[in-house]
Amino acid sequence: MGIEDYGGGPGAQQTGVLVVTTNDVPGYRVEQVIGEVFGLTVRSRHLGSQIGAGLKSMIGGELKGLTKTLVQTRNQAMERLIEQAKARGANAVLMMRFDVTDAADVGTEVCAYGTAVVLVPASA
């Protein structure tokens, strides 16, 4: 059974890289720590979404356009994280986290980061 078969989400089967927020993966051991990897993206806000969000915030409720944009942005950061991990020879990323900050008042910076490792079955 390879790490792709772990079932740790669709990303592991499609990319060959398991991404988890935990320090370890049951049934596997860390054979090699490669180091920190990250995926970064900055998205600007367009005027239409800012006006719509401003109006919506006055009456309350979910800002669906901004939610959709943030989900897309997080997914792009994850894709870049996985690309970097694969390029460095990892088959997993442990302790994955997101960091979200305003970028010079013109957009939002989203960084996905974690520790790239090579996992092997614990019995190996």
TrEMBL record:
InterPro entries found in the cross-reference section: UPF0145_dom_sf, UPF0145_YbjQ-like
Protein name, per record: UPF0145 protein SLAV_04815
Annotated organism of origin: Streptomyces lavendulae subsp. lavendulae
Coiled coil regions in record: none
Similarity comment text for this entry: Belongs to the UPF0145 family.
Cited SUPFAM superfamilies: YbjQ-like (SSF117782)
Pfam families referenced in this protein's UniProt entry, alphabetically: YbjQ_1
HAMAP family: UPF0145
